[in-house]
Amino acid sequence: MAQAANLDRTHAGADNLLHRRLSIMVLMGGPSAERSVSLASGEAVAAALESRGHRVTRADVSPEDLSAFEQADVDLVFVALHGSFGEDGRLQHILEQRGLRYTGSGSQASRLGMDKIEAKRRFAQAGVPTPPFVVAEACRRDHVALEFPFPVIVKPADQGSSVDCSIVRQASDLASAVSHVVDRYGRCLIEPYICGPELTVGILAGQALPVCQIRSATAFYDYEAKYQDDRTEYLFDIDLPGELLQRVQRLSVTTFETLGCRDMSRVDWMIDAATCQPYCLEVNTIPGFTSHSVLPKAAARAGISFADLCEQIVRLAMQR
Question: Which of 38, 41, 161, 293 is catalytic?
Fold first, then answer.
């Protein structure tokens, strides 16, 4: 609760901007593989903002259809588009060109957050531990040399929500997994599979929210486990050393700052069960706002309701 009060004080200077009802366009849907999740996130955000008295317009945009912006007379655009286009900096660049104020990270930080390869390089430079990795592209997908043992994770370099991620447990299966990802996305990231607890840290206004442990009922926390499987557990009473959890929170803020993020994000971690070494996997610049999403759960743990979370994100954007 003290953390919630602290965050409220952080945003007190923006209160005068919100004495009137705001006209807010909530972007949802979009063209990515995460469209259905985005629609759910956007609808939840829109309903929350309406409950606070704001005038809300719902809009579904894509690179081919930007008509919603043609006569957009709004105070703010709330971006709830996940995945490619909405989260990779392209949409943010369009909004900047049109002079529209919007929530979330800017175009550069969004691009870095979506590009897992470049983000991991930035993490390493900032002293944030991240798993070693190999990049496979079309020109060398049949000649991938690994410097770490199996099992490994094979995943697209610029997708979210574990779309097309897989665990490869033996060398004979690597080529087909790599080819599948490269054929669809052009390049893929291969890194060792870290066996241990999976943690995630929400960041709001540059501050770390309580650490959440994700315990999937399946072997891999994939798209279905994230958004459809009600058996997935989200734990805040975590059986790990307090010093480790505090370190993960501090490092999460470092990743947020390293990429130049703003407003909110979610930072994903794996903890090596044998050594308790944390490894940062990625930063999500537009985390989910669904009933299964971790950022709202972590905010609630800190005493911030879902409507308050959306309102605080609005305040942060209105300060700019």
Answer: 161
